[in-house]
UniProtKB/TrEMBL annotation, chain A:
Keywords: Mitochondrion, Ribonucleoprotein, Ribosomal protein. Pfam families: Ribosomal_S13 (PF00416). Gene3D superfamilies: 1.10.8.50, 30s ribosomal protein s13, domain 2. The lineage of its organism: Eukaryota, Fungi, Dikarya, Ascomycota, Pezizomycotina. Component of the mitochondrial ribosome (mitoribosome), a dedicated translation machinery responsible for the synthesis of mitochondrial genome-encoded proteins, including at least some of the essential transmembrane subunits of the mitochondrial respiratory chain. The mitoribosomes are attached to the mitochondrial inner membrane and translation products are cotranslationally integrated into the membrane. InterPro entries: Rbsml_uS13_C, Ribosomal_uS13, Ribosomal_uS13-like_H2TH, Ribosomal_uS13_CS. The keyword Cell cycle does not apply. GO terms for biological process: translation. It comes from Hyaloscypha hepaticicola. Belongs to the universal ribosomal protein uS13 family. This is Small ribosomal subunit protein uS13m. It is found in: Mitochondrion. One of its GO terms (cellular component) is small ribosomal subunit. One of its GO terms (molecular function) is structural constituent of ribosome.
TrEMBL record, chain B:
This is Small ribosomal subunit protein mS29. It comes from the Eukaryota. Residues 37-88 are annotated as: Disordered. It is found in: Mitochondrion. Belongs to the mitochondrion-specific ribosomal protein mS29 family. Keywords: Mitochondrion, Ribonucleoprotein, Ribosomal protein, Transit peptide. One of its GO terms (cellular component) is mitochondrial small ribosomal subunit.
Length: 119, 516
């Protein structure tokens, strides 16, 4: 097991997949991080020396990811709500925000749009 | 009745007797204009009126055919990690079912010595003013064949010669054999000697006193990789040290780890694991390294004894990828020291290194293949920037199957071939093409300012076999028992023509692999 930013990962997992499990890191950021530390895309977590893992953890801790990113997003929604905008209201009502029709297919909006949005 | 319905769109006044008799709803549907109504009637009327079991309804106790889907049978263990790859990459070099071909010559010192004698004869005759030696060793071959007296090794052109056991081991270690080649058909590995192979061998022998930089090019299936293998076999027989990169794409397609090399500008990238494997292959393939001791002093990250053999040095590098690159450099410095044997540096799949690699630099730009330390090393010698101090050759074979296109490489090779032929009009750069690469031109020894003093590389453009060679090859197949046909003029001519004027892989496909 390898410890990256407070999470444990199995040694045979690809590093880029591990990175992409963090909220806020997708293909683009994982590619950038791999390139920054000269790690090839097929590298598995277990192959890397502890030093590199620590460097990656340090890099991740400087980025706005996970809880920080979630909080930022909630703040953004709260701001919309506080100023009483239409978008804020739609978020609070759990309805589509960007002018979509609501006759059918608003499952995503129902699932996600809340003031205390999770992800 | 029906016509009435069309006009008035009213409910058809069907007599009940008609509807009851109508067994199929199709018939009722065929009534025009009131199809839906008819259906409604039909669905009502089609209901069975008797109290017996309905259609499609199960009766208790009735036997029905049940076909259960069986789960797929479990056959043994699932393949272990790496097992399938090992199967895929397995090289079979012998087939006990194939017949042994009597009277095969071996590619040994004697044969290579005969080719060397041929050079001397040619040189002597060139001095006497019969013909020009330089750049026309193929001509020598033809003239020599006509005379037939001088023992210049040209009698074997068009014959298949066997590889010696030691050479086979070495070739296997440098991964010169490929899975796509038909080694598994025959009793022992053999090579067809073509005119070009004799020419190349002679060039190699001459390169012991100089340097040879050569690119082997040709259409798909013309035997580029096999000519490279022939060169390696000759080099092993002559006691050279062979360093081979069997697949250039393995170096550039980002499947191995890499690390920036400090204090280099532009930054070079080493590939620790690949270099370690390469060192292990070099060590395995060149048994003569065991007899050579270190003669220079090196500053290496690990302490080494001053009197270890080069073989041991390679072993140390192969064991620890972290020190593989410094050890490779030390090993190379040893090879370039005085009194060492010539070196053959070879690479297959040239176009893979003539473009950007799949590796990413820290700023997420793509790393050019020439910025990979190993490729940089190769390219320095291919371009002529650095010289092999004890003689030797740098050979690269282009690949035409599953190879990326490199516009600059295509152009330069085309131009060089045209120059060699002495054509008046040389192909020029396409002014609208944007993907030309200066570094590629430099690597092949051409280009405006950056051109090296050594001049452009030589290009050996392979074509199909001659009919004589094709016949020799087919006779060998027949003697091995793989080709069950009479090999005569007609058969050879047919296969030769069908194979696009003797493209050797196509001849093989038509004669050996295709069973109709």
């Amino acid at each position: 097991m390898v410890f990256i930013l407070g999470n444990n990962f199995l040694e045979n997992r690809l590093l880029r997949h591990c990175l992409e499990t963090f909220y806020g890191i997708g293909t683009k950021h994982s590619t950038r991080i791999l390139a920054k530390f000269s790690i090839y895309p097929g590298a598995r977590v277990g192959q890397l020396p502890t030093k590199t893992i620590n460097e990656i953890t340090a890099e991740l801790s400087t980025m706005t990811i996970e809880t920080d990113l979630r909080r930022k997003m909630r703040d953004n929604i709260q701001r919309l709500r506080d100023m009483g905008s239409y978008r804020g209201r739609r978020h609070a009502m759990g309805l589509p925000v960007r002018g979509q029709r609501t006759r059918s297919q608003i499952l995503t909006a129902r699932k996600l749009n809340k003031i205390e949005r999770h992800g | 009745m029906a016509t009435n319905c069309i006009r008035c769109l009213a409910r058809p006044s069907l007599p009940p007797s008609f509807l009851v008799n109508a067994s199929s709803s199709l018939r009722i549907q065929s009534l025009p204009s009131t199809a839906s109504m008819g259906k409604r009637y039909a669905s009502k009327l089609n209901r069975p009126t008797t109290n017996g079991p309905r259609k499609n309804e199960k009766v208790k106790g009735q036997k029905t055919l049940r076909i259960k889907k069986k789960p797929p049978p479990k056959t043994g263990k699932p393949p272990q990690p790496g097992e399938r790859k090992a199967m895929r990459k397995r090289i079979v070099l012998s087939n006990t079912n194939a017949l042994e071909v009597p009277g095969m010559r071996e590619l040994d010192k004697g044969l290579v010595g005969e080719w060397e004698m041929g050079i001397r004869d040619a040189r002597r005759q060139a001095e006497e003013g019969h013909w020009v030696l330089e750049g026309a060793l193929g001509m020598v071959a033809k003239e020599g064949a006509k005379e037939g007296e001088a023992k210049n090794g040209e009698g074997v052109i068009g014959q298949v010669v066997a590889l010696q056991g030691q050479t086979v081991d070495s070739l296997r270690a440098v991964e010169a054999f490929k899975t796509t080649q038909g080694w598994g058909f025959f009793r022992r590995p053999g090579l067809l000697i073509r005119e070009e192979s004799v020419m190349l061998s002679r060039k190699l022998i001459q390169a012991e006193q100089g340097n040879l930089r050569l690119v082997i090019d040709g259409e798909r299936g013309t035997g580029k990789s096999l000519l490279l293998l022939h060169a390696m076999a000759t080099a092993f027989v002559r006691g050279w040290i062979v360093i081979n990169i069997p697949e250039a794409q393995e170096v550039t397609n980002a499947m191995n780890d890499y690390a920036p090399l400090p204090n280099t500008n532009p930054t070079l990238f080493t590939q620790p694991t690949y270099t370690a494997t390469l060192l292990s292959r070099i060590n395995k393939a060149n048994p003569i390294l065991a007899d050579m001791e270190i003669s220079l002093t090196h500053s290496l990250p690990i302490p080494i004894q001053s009197n270890i053999s080069l073989s041991r040095l390679c072993e140390l590098g192969a064991r620890d990828p972290d020190v593989a690159w410094p050890i490779f450099q030390a090993f190379w410095a040893e090879l370039m020291a005085e009194g060492m044997p010539p070196v053959l540096l070879s690479l297959d799949g040239l176009s893979n290194i003539m473009r950007e690699s799949m590796y990413l630099a820290p700023d997420t730009s793509k790393v050019h293949a020439h910025d990979l330390a190993l490729i940089d090393h190769f390219v320095n010698y291919l371009s002529g920037k650095r010289r092999l101090e004890n003689g030797g050759a740098v050979l690269a074979a282009a690949s035409r199957s599953h190879a990326p296109t490199s516009k600059s490489m295509e152009l330069v090779l085309k131009q060089l071939v045209e120059l060699q032929k002495g054509e008046e009009e040389i192909t020029e750069k396409d002014p609208f093409e944007k993907s030309y690469d200066d570094r590629v031109e430099w690597a092949l020894g051409v280009g405006s300012e950056k051109a090296t003093k050594a001049g452009p590389v030589e290009v050996l453009k392979l074509k199909g076999l001659s009919k004589k060679e094709a016949r020799g090859l087919m006779e060998y197949w027949a003697k091995s028992g793989v080709l069950r046909k009479k090999v005569d003029e007609k058969e050879v001519a047919e296969k030769w023509a069908l194979a696009g004027n003797g493209v050797v892989a196509e001849i093989e496909r038509g004669a050996l692999r295709m069973r109709i």
